[in-house]
Amino acid sequence: MKRLKPRIILLSLASGLILSLAWPERGFPALLFIGFIPLLRMEDLISANRDRFNRFSVFFYSYPGFLLWNALTTWWIVNSTGEGAILAIMLNSMFMSIILSFFHGTKRRLNNSPAAYLALVCFWVMLEYLHLNWDLNWPWLNLGNGFSSYYRWVQWYEYTGAFGGTVWVLVVNVLIFTLLRGKIDARYKMQDTRCKISRILHPASCILLILLPILLSYILYYSYHEKSRPVQAVIVQPNIDPYSEEYVLPPVKVVGRIMELSGKAVDSSTNILVTPESALQQEMWENNMETFESVGLVRQIISKYPKLNIIVGGSTYYAYKPGERIPHSARKFTKDNGWYNVYNAAIMVNSYPALQIYHKSKLTPGVEVLPSYKGFEWLEKYAINLGGIVGSLGTDSVRKVYRGLNMPPVAACICYESIFGEFFGGFVRNGAQLMCIITNDGWWGNTAGHRQHYAFAHLRAIETRRSILRSANTGISAWIDQRGDAHEQTKYWVPAVIRATVNANDRITFYTRYGDYIAYWLSWLGALLYLGSIGVWITRKRISRS
Question: What's the fold here for domain 230-513?
Answer without folding.
Answer: Nitrilase/N-carbamoyl-D-aminoacid amidohydrolase (3.60.110)
